[in-house]
């Protein structure tokens, strides 16, 4: 952690801004200072965005921040946010692995905590009035400290476009990483990279290959498959190819492995919280592989009824995360149910990655429910009595016979 100072002697009214160093938050930092005439504390949460955060801190101070805090939260992010979500097999609208959604609660929580430490009365974010993140940030703020005051510049200032944003930045001598010619934005963390805006707003435009940062195209992937073995304990991946890794290192390493094998790209039109449809292009290599692997281990360690119960709550669980309800009681209740099912999700899975595809090579578990002796088409030596199925089928079909009798 860098930049923490005592709140002693600090004047009231300070603002803690969720700061990335990008176009929006750089302009917002200067705008907050110019508009509110108070000190602004720039908080940069390192959730694995792989940027030069020293430069981000220097830029914040140069732009006028009274304090710039850069905090390494990668392990916290992986262990207490990404991994619980993966245990729940979360996927929004059957496509989106929630990479942006899952980072916001952690950033917002730390903002509130820092505001308390520093004696600041306000928190601010750079989310637009059209997007999802404004909801995610502010629901998290309310859950952690409902009395905090929130500033959302995009909902109050007179800047209405990226063009005007760039003009304000240039007027105030702020260096920004985008240009008028290439204005689509991206958001990166340990779990994914998202791209939206600019040419991507037209559904007729395919994303340029040059846009992607952590995955290659199937055409450029190696000509030979790569094998990966994962070991799971209580629903969490703990070992990769025989080496135990921390949650952060597990995701970070799998991003490299899956990415170089063209695994993890998605081009999605999703339903935003605000009601509109939005297109996003995503790279989630480790997340794609880990969700697949987790389901493979669950397939041999959970009963069909347990799998059905979990699959039944995936849409609601995913929606809660997407809409910013990470700290809600209902998400916590569902998480408790999910985690109670994971006690038996122990074992290993061997996978083959090849040009964007994932293939299962083997699965095994000390608590496996799979029995070759029972399922075999050969002589089961009395392990299963096939005649027992007659009574079972008679009972299962009884309702159809009664319906037919009553001409239904």
Description:
- This protein has a five-stranded parallel β-sheet, sandwiched between helices. Strands 10-9-8-13-14 form a five-stranded antiparallel β-sheet, with helices on one face.
- It folds into two domains: 15-85 and 96-182, 3-Layer(aba) Sandwich (Rossmann fold); 193-364, Alpha-Beta Complex (Argininosuccinate synthetase, chain A, domain 2).
- It starts with 14 loop residues before the first strand and ends with a helix.
- Helix content is 41%, strand content 19%.
- It is built from twelve helices and 14 strands.
- With 408 residues, the chain is α/β, with parallel strands linked by helices.
- The model is unreliable at 1-11 (pLDDT under 50).
* Total separate domains: 2
Strand order of the largest sheet: 3-2-1-4-5
The CATH homologous superfamily of the largest domain is named Argininosuccinate synthetase, chain A, domain 2
User: Helices and strands: which structural class?
Assistant: alpha/beta
Rounded radius of gyration (Å): 25 Å
Query: Order of SSEs, N→C?
Result: EHEHEHHEHEHEEEEEHEEHHHEEHH
What percentage of the residues does DSSP assign to strands (E)? 15-25%
Biggest sheet overview: 5 strands, parallel
Task: Summarize the entry for a quick read.
With 408 residues, the protein is of the alpha/beta class. It is built from 12 helices and 14 strands.
Keywords:
elongated, 12 helices, 19% strand, alpha/beta, 408 residues, disordered N terminus, 2 domains, Rossmann fold, five-stranded antiparallel β-sheet, five-stranded parallel β-sheet, Argininosuccinate synthetase, chain A, domain 2
């Amino acid at each position: 952690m860098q930049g923490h100072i005592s709140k002693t002697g600090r004047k009231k009214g300070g603002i803690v801004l969720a700061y990335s160093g990008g176009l929006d938050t750089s302009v917002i930092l200067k705008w907050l200072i110019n508009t509110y005439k108070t000190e602004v504390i720039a908080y940069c949460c390192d959730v694995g965005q792989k940027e030069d955060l020293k430069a981000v801190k220097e830029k914040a101070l140069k732009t006028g921040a009274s304090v710039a805090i850069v905090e390494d939260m990668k392990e916290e992010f992986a262990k207490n946010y990404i991994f619980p979500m993966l245990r729940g097999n979360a996927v929004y609208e059957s496509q989106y692995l929630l990479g942006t959604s899952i980072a916001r609660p952690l950033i917002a929580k730390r903002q509130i905590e820092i505001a308390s430490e520093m004696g600041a009365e306000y928190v601010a974010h750079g989310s637009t009035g059209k997007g999802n993140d404004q909801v995610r940030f502010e629901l998290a703020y309310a859950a952690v400290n409902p009395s905090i005051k929130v500033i959302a510049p995009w909902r109050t200032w007179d800047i209405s476009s990226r063009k005007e944003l760039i003009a304000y930045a240039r007027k105030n001598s702020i260096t920004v990483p985008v240009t008028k010619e290439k204005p689509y934005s991206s958001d990166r963390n340990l779990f994914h990279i998202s791209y939206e805006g600019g040419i991507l707003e037209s559904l007729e435009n395919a994303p340029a290959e040059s846009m992607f940062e952590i995955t290659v195209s199937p055409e450029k992937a190696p000509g030979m498959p790569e094998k990966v073995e994962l070991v799971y304990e209580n629903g969490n991946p703990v070992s990769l190819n025989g080496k135990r890794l921390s949650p952060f290192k597990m995701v970070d390493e799998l991003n490299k492995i899956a990415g170089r094998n063209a695994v993890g790209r998605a081009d999605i039109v999703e339903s935003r919280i605000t009601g509109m449809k939005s297109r996003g292009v995503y790279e989630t290599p480790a997340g794609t592989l880990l969700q697949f692997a987790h389901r493979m281990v669950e397939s041999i360690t959970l009963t069909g009824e347990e799998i059905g119960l979990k699959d039944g709550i995936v849409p609601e669980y995913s929606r809660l995360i997407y809409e910013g309800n990470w700290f809600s009681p209902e998400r916590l209740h569902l998480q408790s149910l999910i985690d109670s099912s994971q006690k038996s999700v122990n074992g290993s899975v061997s996978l083959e990655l090849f040009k964007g595809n994932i293939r299962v090579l083997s699965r095994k578990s000390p608590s496996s429910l799979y029995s070759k002796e029972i399922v075999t088409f050969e002589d089961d030596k009395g392990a299963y009595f096939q005649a027992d199925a007659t009574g079972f089928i008679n009972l299962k079909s009884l309702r159809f016979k009664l319906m037919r009798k009553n001409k239904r």
